[in-house]
Amino acid sequence: MDNEKLTGIERDLVLQYLIDGNVPVTLTPVVEQKEEDSVHPVNSQIFPIALKAEHIKVQDNGIIQLENPPQAINDFAGKKVKVEFYFNRVGLYFISEVADGKGGLSISIPKEICRIKDIEEKKEYDFSAVIYLAYNNKEKQDSNIKCVPWEVQELFSRPVWKSIPLENQKTAKEYLEEFVIQAKQQKNAGNGIQLIPVCNYLTYKNQNKIESLQNRQKPLNILYVDHERIVLGSKNESDSLLFAEGSEYGIKLCFSIKNSPILSRDIFVTCMINKVYTNKDNSAKCIDCIYTSMQEEDLRFLYEKATKKLFV
Question: CA nearest 272: which of 298, 294, 291, 244?
Answer without folding.
Answer: 291
